[in-house]
Amino acid sequence: MTPFRTLLNPVPGLTPGEAQERARQLLKGRIELSVFRWWTRGQSIPADRQFMMLGVAVWSGYDLNLLDHLVSKMAQNSHLEMPVYVFDADCMASNEELEALLPGIGFVNHTPYVGLWKNGELIAKASGFHGRQLVARWFHIPESLVNERIVAAS
């Protein structure tokens, strides 16, 4: 599978804004080809007994790096059967809308947006650096790996 970090690569003939829009369009397909599940704004909260919700931005090297390490970890460890639903963080129209999805997350400045549900209850939520830490701890990924910033190839 093509690494998520390649979504940052420049596309000849496209402006940076056009390349970012193209990356947003490609994100859903990449998610659907991976171990993750795609979630879209307006859908109901998944009914799984336990799951993680992860809002990422295609313009964030941190988020794409996190997806690459998480997909690798989940592929290596088949016992990690907890579903991870991924959504485009930029689809959230306001912080209030994000708060409705992840009650108690408060005002957020940075992606990813992370929520962990167990038996229908949101048991943990975080964003940005703390969101990456939550994912790393839950899936036993060294925090140093998920805190690496990936930039577009030149």
Q: pLDDT under 50 segments (min length 5)? A: none
- Give the terminus-to-terminus CA distance: 22 Å
Which percent range describes the beta-strand content?
15-25%
What's the helix count? 5
Overall structural class, as computed from helix and strand content, comes to alpha/beta
Shape: globular
Number of strands: 5
Q: Which value, in Å, is the CA radius of gyration?
A: 15 Å
Helical residue percent band: 25-40%
The main sheet comes to:
5 strands, mixed
What is the element string, with H for helices and E for strands?
HEEHEHEEHH
Mean pLDDT: 91
- Strand neighbour order, sheet with most strands: 1-3-2-4-5
Describe it for me?
The chain has about 150 residues and is an alpha/beta fold. The chain is built from 5 helices and 5 strands. It is globular, with a radius of gyration of 15 Å.
